[in-house]
Design brief:
Elements: H1 24-31, H2 35-43, H3 46-55, E1 62-63, E2 69-70, E3 125-134, E4 140-141, E5 146-150, E6 172-176, E7 182-188, E8 199-205, E9 219-224, H4 227-234, H5 242-247, E10 267-271, E11 275-284
Parallel strand pairs: 3-11
Antiparallel strand pairs: 1-2, 3-4, 3-7, 5-6, 5-8, 8-9, 10-11
Helix pairs in contact: 2-3
Length: 286
């Protein structure tokens, strides 16, 4: 992996089980569920199978922090996580106070091109769709909020910080949530670097106008990318170090996602040739 200026700190806090031979009840219940729920059952492995058999045709629920549960449409509030050492949000990190949020053009949907140089980040295309909802108001859509999203390149570097791309500012951008609470970003699937599960950082701000400095943020969290997607992507060119890095980390051993990632793992659709879409409802206690 290319050398990063500073190491990722220790506090930067899909598997498909065989559904055959589980009996008629499981088969009938699975067939009666939506495509989304079937994918989520498979993604949860043994836990999903237990929920499938135990709940019958009831709505599939997901475990959440504090022992509460939520549905895919109305999840529990997403947990707070560290912004890590490469946020470029005006906060002090890696011995600097870099701030991409004040740059002209940072409010954008396509994050792949650097505002500073015009260079484009390579990688398998990824569309990230986040829907912000208020968990204190029956998951009503949160419109007019802003999301700042950033992540590493296909080879594990961070723009503005890593020595190889310190002059770039791609794979960073801000979007305002629409009337349905949704923000959409066009980017690339990030690589896996040593010591961390593949992930995407994001911060939420109460308004677009306030998304200029980390001091105004109301939430910081991370998305955990599904293993099956990562394995498929990392088998393509441009992700040479990611396969071996991924083999040495798991969600259970990752220092961010080891306490659970059910509210942080998006639903993935697509392919390496057509690109992927990651969709997640983000619960915020407002």
């Amino acid at each position: 992996m290319p050398q990063l200026i500073t190491p990722y700190p220790a506090d930067d806090h899909d598997h498909h089980d065989d559904l055959n031979n589980l009996g008629l009840q499981a088969d009938q219940t699975m067939l009666g569920k939506s495509v989304l729920d079937r994918r989520r059952v498979l993604g949860l492995g043994l836990l999903g199978i237990g929920l499938l058999v135990g709940c019958g045709s009831a709505a599939l629920t997901t475990p959440a922090i504090g022992g509460t549960t939520g549905t895919a449409e109305c999840p529990a509030a997403i947990p707070s996580e560290t912004a890590g050492p490469y946020p470029a949000d005006g906060s002090a990190a890696s011995g600097q106070s870099l701030n991409v949020l004040t740059r002209s053009g940072i409010v954008r949907q396509d994050l792949r091109t650097s505002l500073s140089t015009g260079n484009t980040a390579a990688g398998v295309p990824l569309t990230v769709v986040l829907r912000l909802v208020n968990t204190n108001a029956s998951c009503a859509a949160l419109s007019g909020y802003a999301v700042y999203l950033w992540h590493c390149t296909a080879d594990g570097n961070y723009s503005m910080y890593s020595s190889a791309i310190v002059g770039e500012d791609y794979l960073r951008g801000v979007q305002e949530s629409g009337s349905d609470g949704t923000v959409t970003f066009q980017t690339v699937v990030p690589g896996c670097y040593a010591g961390r599960w593949p992930h995407i950082h994001f911060e939420v701000y109460p308004t677009l106008a306030s998304a200029t400095n980390a001091s105004n943020k109301i939430q910081t969290s991370q998305l955990a990318l599904p293993q099956a997607t990562c394995e498929a992507v990392y088998a393509t060119s441009g992700y040479s170090a990611s396969t071996s890095n991924l083999s040495r980390i798991s969600l259970a051993s990752d220092n961010i996602f080891s306490d659970g990632s059910s509210t942080q793992m998006p639903t993935m659709t697509g392919s390496t040739s057509a690109g992927y879409t990651a969709t997640l409802t983000v619960g915020l206690a407002r």
